[in-house]
Design goal:
Order of helices and strands: HHHH
Radius of gyration: 15 Å
Number of strands: 0
Oligomer: single chain
Strand content: under 5%
Largest sheet: none
Helix content: 40-55%
Number of helices: 4
Shape: globular
Number of domains: 1
Structural class: mainly alpha
Distance between the termini: 18 Å
Low-confidence stretches: none
């Protein structure tokens, strides 16, 4: 799948979906196999926000040509919180993640994050 070809329209589409759902427009910058919005708002349960975002993206991406016809999300999702003092570095990370993940996979980054914070990593839940 050529995620780079649809990166700009995906960002615009997801920003519109977030706005429609009453959430702030936030940096998203998806890569080939995941999306990482900076914030999903506080007025709707996180699981509902993720479900709505996944549904909207799935419906839209499948209209973008035969390369995307088989697109499907994994069953789960992961979240973390970021303190206000770390917003600038996180925004910078999101802006650079396509280049960053050409060097280090998302899965490897999750494993390192969990290890750095003393959280046991169960491989069944890193990505399915």
């Amino acid at each position: 799948m050529d995620a780079g070809r649809v990166r700009v329209p995906v960002n615009a589409y997801l920003a519109a979906v977030l706005k429609y759902l009453g959430r702030p427009a936030v940096p998203i910058n998806p890569v080939a196999d995941y999306v990482q919005p900076l914030a999903l708002g506080r007025t709707v349960a996180l699981s509902t926000a993720v479900e709505q975002l996944k549904q909207a993206w799935s419906k839209w991406i499948k209209t973008q040509g035969p390369d995307f016809a088989g697109f499907a999300w994994q069953a789960g999702y992961g979240t973390s919180s970021v303190s206000a003092s770390n917003l600038t570095p996180v925004r910078r990370y999101i802006a650079r993640q396509p280049a960053h993940h050409r060097v280090r996979t998302f899965e490897d980054e999750i494993r390192a994050l969990l290890e750095r914070h003393g959280v046991a990593c169960d491989e069944r839940y890193v990505c399915d």
